[in-house]
Amino acid sequence: MSANNRNLNLNAPTKPKDVADKAEGKSQSKSKKRMTISLPSDTAKFLEWLAAEQDISQVEVIRKAIATEYFLQNEIKQGAKVLVKTDTSIKEVIFR
Question: CA-CA distance, 68 to 71, in Å (whole number)?
Answer without folding.
Answer: 5
